[in-house]
Design a protein that fits this description.
The protein is mainly alpha-helical. The protein is built from four helices and no strands. The protein is 71% helix and 0% strand.
């Protein structure tokens, strides 16, 4: 059992060291002059699909976009959990049905709460 978790520990170390090494190599390449650095106003501007930027990049946006994105992620993850459950339903029997009903009920309560708070309306 320790050997299995040891492999996970090695993967965590590699996952930490690899990005650090890549950033260090990029920094050293910039110091040596291999990686060019020529900042300009055009490179610092906000990219808007080839069109000239209008206004500043620090603008306020409608906060409801955040709620819609969050709800999309929640229900997208729900489908990720529902698909394997539906495929293996015959082997899992009634226990899986009850478990998935509780899962969907929790999400339905969250959706009802969002609906009650008028989060889903664009006034």
């Amino acid at each position: 059992m320790l050997s299995q978790f040891g492999l996970i520990g090695i993967l965590f170390v590699v996952a930490f060291i690899f990005p650090v090494v890549m950033l260090l190599i990029s920094y050293l390449a910039g110091l040596v002059g291999i990686r060019p650095s020529a900042p300009s106003a055009v490179k610092s501007s906000t990219y808007e699909c080839g069109m000239r930027p209008v206004g500043t990049s620090w603008m306020r946006f409608n906060f409801r976009y955040y709620f819609f994105a969050l709800l999309f992620v929640v229900f997208d993850v729900e489908t990720v959990f529902l698909f394997p459950w539906a495929v293996a339903y015959r082997q899992l029997a009634v226990f899986a049905l009850v478990e998935m009903a509780i899962f969907i009920a929790i999400l339905a309560v969250g959706l009802a709460y969002a609906w009650k708070k008028n989060v889903l309306e664009w006034k």
